[in-house]
Fold:
Amino acid sequence: MTPDLTSYDSIIVAVSGGKDGIACLLALLEAGASKDRLELWHHEVDGQGPSFMDWPSTSPYVSALARDFGLPLYRSWRKGGFEREMLRKDAPTAPVLFESPEGLIRSGGQGPNGTRLRFPQVSASLTTRWCSSVTKIDVADRALRGQDRFLHRRTLFVTGERAGESPNRARYAVFEPHRTDTRHGTRRRRHVDHWRPVHQWSEAQVWNSLKRWNVMPALPYRIGFSRLSCATCIFGDVRQFATIRWLDPARFDRLVQYEQQFGCTIKRTVSLEQLAEQGRPYAAALAEPDLARACLSARPIPTVFTPAWELPAGAFGQGGGGNLKKKKKKQKVGKRKRGEGGQHRPARPARGGSVRVLAPLRAGRSRRCASLWQAALSCARRRGSGKEIKTMSDTLERPAQAHAFDLKQAHEEGWTILEGCGPDNDETRLVGLHCSDPQAWWRVARKAGEGSTYHREALSRLSENEREQIRLRFGPL
Ligand code: SF4
Structure:
């Protein structure tokens, strides 16, 4: 069913940057929703702090989406985000901040003291899996309740849950009064309906919708991730965590350290290290290291529209590539084998034996780098000796340590980025976090801490202000 869209004063679409939320927006536009009443809401899981759970590239992607469709975008977040809530000890849950036409509004933060000191646990219960409610659901509720512009008006709140994602989501109603609805109340009366327009859609329908509108899926889909939202979602499988360990070892290490500190793992029976050990990074990520690195960059995205739309590698949970027809076929087969919902099949355990770097793989921005990497991996596996390659920085930084500092080399590694300039441009200079990828700088800082002359020299060329920014985000250099 499609509700009478003309009967609403405001239509809010919750967009995480994932395909389902975007499909909701496109479905609304195809159903004739007036842009004057539409607005996009985006919840920042990390609370606008340093990247911990979310993809740094998501926020710029959502900005570009709103800009391209000419729609207002309001962000909202729990102060300190996921990490602060996880580390809460004898303290109340932090307040929520949300953008509104009247400016930034603050709500809550005066609750009872409590302690978490553990990751949310994989569960259908939102009390145990507190991340969804603390960083998204309650944030949206507070933003709805905290704005008088929704009082005595009709509001449609639109979200992209699909029945095919999980048995739990299959139980959601397609249309119902929203939790914040007070239409029968006596004071602060507010009519809010909740509509899930893609609830009955298949994944293929969702991708077809993005294809019709030439909307480029967010970057992580293109390196093999089948869902967007948190990069290190607690529901992640072996391949997802193997990819994160390869792509962003600093983030992975922090998660591992927290598991050890809490004495409680994300998955009940296995640590993250054991989990990642059982999987291999997505082939699409290995084949496109530049794209993979771009997922960790918060640089602005000029547009979400693409003239050459392609099904992303992560479609249908395969982590590979291919065309839509083949993928649809695979999806049917997958459902028969794996049951309704198409849950990921556990990836094959990594083959035994360690891997040795065979040649000085120079980090580059070309496919050649990826094929060299893969050739090195497979050849070294055949030989079965030497040092294991687990992370992207094994590829990026090991050869660099062999040389004195070189601006061109650093540029190729992705941490001396200056928009619009290249390494051959005289005006290119080192920049810290302002224009660069913070995660790349974190790897530089870590290598410097381990004594690499090359990386120490890079750090010494930064201004004190730039070094301070790195210290603030990642700790002492
Ligand atoms: S995406 Fe995963 S980790 Fe992030 S809030 Fe949702 S359930 Fe939690």
Observations:
- Residues 45, 53, 120, 129, 131-132, 135, 229-230, 233-235 surround iron/sulfur cluster (CB under 6 Å).
